[in-house]
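Recap slide: ACT domain-containing protein, sequence and predicted structure.
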Amino acid sequence: MSYLLRVHLPDRPGSLGSLAVALGSVGADILSLDVIERGDGYAVDDLVVDVAPGSLPDTLITAAENLDDVRVDSIRPYTGVLDTHRELELIDSVAAANDDRLQVLVDGAPRVLRVGWSVVVATGDRGSFRVVGSSGAPETHATDMPWMPLRHPAALDGDAEWVPQVWRDMDTKIAAAPLGSTGTVLMLGRPGGPDFRPSEVARLGYLAGIVATVLG
């Protein structure tokens, strides 16, 4: 069983080593680590850890937070494929697709950006609508997106009136980025959080910009 932990910890030598020892003491093995954000004296890291079947995620939280100034922002099951070149692999898949490249994009984006679902949305004569969605995208569509057209990547207010109630009930965090100047937008949903960090929004923007170039 694997979990994805988002951990807020001091940005100083030895912090990550201490965390690895603490997690190892409860039988967890760190499989990968991504630095999500660095600030004044702190870092936010995403860690994929492997634990024995039946192990409770609470033990991971307790082990980590027993360390000084360490906080677990979120923990959720992880079933993605580990790949240190996720963005490049997705871009290559989109470029090589013979049919619906947008579908390839939304199918791959959740794994690459570690979210629950992704959709591509656009605006037409009758307002905003979904073009394609990933397999995990909610059946309830957002039909009024007053922030469209979107000029820059952004984290959106998940409690805004345009957000379907079922999304709000699941405390879905939302981020989006324009696919070039096409008027279409790649939107991500992360049910249950955590919030999108500025670095994640920037990463989404870079990916969407490159994919837009590939799509032509």
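The chain has two domains: 2-77, 85-215.
The CA atoms of residues 19 and 64 lie 6 Å apart.
(End of recap.)
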